[in-house]
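Re: that chain you flagged

S.,

Sorry for the slow reply, it's been a week of failed gels. I finally had a moment to sit down with the sequence you sent. For the record, here it is as I used it:
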Amino acid sequence: MGGGGIPMNVAPVQGGYLTGRKLVFPLALVISLFFLWGFSYGLLDVLNKHFQTVLNITKLESTGLQVMYFGGGYLCFSPIAAEVLKRKGYKITILMGLAFYSIGAVMFWPVAHYSTPYNTKSAFGGFLVCTLVIACGLATLETAANSYAVVIGDPALASARLQFCQSWNGVASFVGPLIASKAFFSGANQNNLTNVQYVYLAVSCAGAAVAVLFFVAKLPEVAEETGRRSSIVDENTLEMAVGHDGKIIGDAPLYKQYNMIFGVIAQFCYVGAQVTIASFFINYATENASYTAAEASQMLSYGLITFTVGRFIATGLATIFESNFLLVIYCCFAIAFNAYIAAGHGKAAVGVLIAIFFFEAPMYPTIFTLGTANLGRHTRRGAGILVMGVSGGAVFPPIQGAVADAAGTRISYVVPLCGFVVVLAYVSYHWVTHGFKVMRQKGAVIAASYEGGAVGGVVQTVHYDEKRLSVVGLEEIRRNSVGEVTGATGGIRRE
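Prediction finished late last night. Pasting the structure tokens below so you have them in one place:
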């Protein structure tokens, strides 16, 4: 593992990746992280509206939560988390993230307890600090968990595996608004912060419990590929990993990994669009239709249920169709629905707003998988950079908040529409450059080189003598029978 050793209580993965029953327990632990992330995110969207009411702040001011959450945490802290991941491994990084998460959540208690009608601005500032600490923890967990879910198993199924893990994120994200609709918007609680204390105390306890579980568990560690050219098979043979374009995987410097760079831009725009759609959902439902705040919070939970169902369905589809093709279709529907939301009125428009959550569902994990494919020795830092794309959630909401204050919430939904257009451009280019494939390729060589895995390429065997090398070409490997899938590279080993 480049940059540091594997902790003594962490079991390294033998043979490159896990399969079968060995994969179940590590994935279950990773799913628990996505559940914590989803629950926290679901509460955040509801707090936007609740703080507007209790603390008497504007829509634009309320987006400070998103700025701290996605900007302060994900943009600023993700590179730090990626460096810790590079040097210390997955387990230490996850424990660090859970510590930040639990501490930030428990900080909500004193801030809410000492909040009064006379110090609302100061109280909101305190909540922003709490949100920042939580976000630093979640950015750390995102960096580690997304990457771990991709590299721990078969690279050819990396997209489907990450879709499945992130589906549980969706399960938790609709539980949050359901609880909030009762805790924050019912009876006397709709005008105070008392229940905010108890909800976040429970969140902190949950984070601490998961941390204990990770501490005692023997979490398998996947070694990062540092360049297969130094992997000597025998005195006359060495191996190197190459992609479908014939170039050595991970050989170019990080700043020349253009697929990753474009993936970050697409992720930035997608997350910005997703966050704005959810953040202003309650405002849209109360202003554009005859829903109360409590009813709108429940409607938001229905949207997040739709999102969750969409994730599970996308998981199944990703085992049949190419992920880049699927995302092209999903983006087209999202753009069409978003256009109607910005132009429509009444309950029908709210129904379409709920439906768009279905088409958002597979975007984040698919973009992450496509963006981190074929990074080789840059995999862990690349994962941190892709997570930085989540900072789009800090940029888009203030823009939409300003538009909403000036022209109305309905018109402000043009902002996420722009984000979906950028995502469509990225995945369309990815689909076109990879041969317009619709069905998932059965050949492991082709499938593994298109997406997923720490490297996701082909291991070429190089036979050499004293002064001359002769490379077994990629086309020859393809013409011959498919070899055994090998290592975290997600490639094919032929000798």
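What I noticed first: Residues 21-433 form a domain with the Growth Hormone; Chain: A; fold (CATH 1.20.1250.20).

Talk soon,
D.
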